[in-house]
């Protein structure tokens, strides 16, 4: 008597749960996405020097780059491609490294429009152009940490400085 009752409960549990699951939608709605690049830069120089250099380089590249705000801990800027089609928000966050009293910079560029995630490294090049033109890419103690997961298109980037 107990065996058929147990079997009934198991069968009802298995097949009864299928009835409670709603059927999948026939066509999933795509989620909007934006291409992005996040990179970590380390410098042996103080953050005040690094942030000032980056802010000056953004202003030198006006109107392609536009400085939005600058504080000792963060710089925000916008980038618009020369053809006016692509636009990105750029942020640099600065913090002092404990052991070396150098500077740790979290840099990121995010496309504003709904674009392909494979942007051929456009967002990386936005950051690298400022880094290279300012001379910071050859500064003492400079180290860049990024990869294809943090910076989409990084492996395909062919930056023109």
TrEMBL record:
Q: Where is the signal peptide?
A: 1-20
Instruction: Name the keywords, alphabetized.
Output: Signal
Asked if the keyword Signal belongs to this entry, the reply reads: yes
Q: Report which superkingdom the organism of origin falls in.
A: Eukaryota
Which PANTHER family does the protein's record reference? SI:CH73-250A16.5-RELATED, WU:FC46H12 PRECURSOR
Q: What is this protein called?
A: Uncharacterized protein
């Amino acid at each position: 008597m107990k065996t058929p009752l147990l079997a009934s409960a198991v069968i009802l549990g298995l097949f009864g749960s299928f009835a409670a699951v709603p059927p999948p939608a026939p066509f999933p709605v795509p989620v909007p996405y934006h291409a992005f690049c996040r990179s970590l830069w380390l410098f042996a120089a103080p953050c005040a020097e690094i942030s000032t250099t980056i802010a000056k380089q953004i202003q030198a590249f006006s109107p392609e780059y536009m400085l939005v705000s600058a504080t000792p801990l963060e710089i925000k800027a916008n980038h618009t491609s020369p053809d006016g089609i692509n636009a990105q928000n750029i942020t640099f966050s600065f913090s002092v490294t404990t052991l070396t009293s150098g500077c740790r910079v979290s840099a990121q560029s995010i496309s504003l429009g709904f674009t392909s995630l494979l942007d051929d490294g456009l967002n990386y090049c936005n950051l690298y152009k400022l880094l290279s033109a300012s001379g910071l890419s050859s500064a003492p103690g400079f180290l860049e940490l990024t990869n294809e997961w943090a910076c989409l298109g990084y492996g395909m980037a062919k930056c023109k400085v």
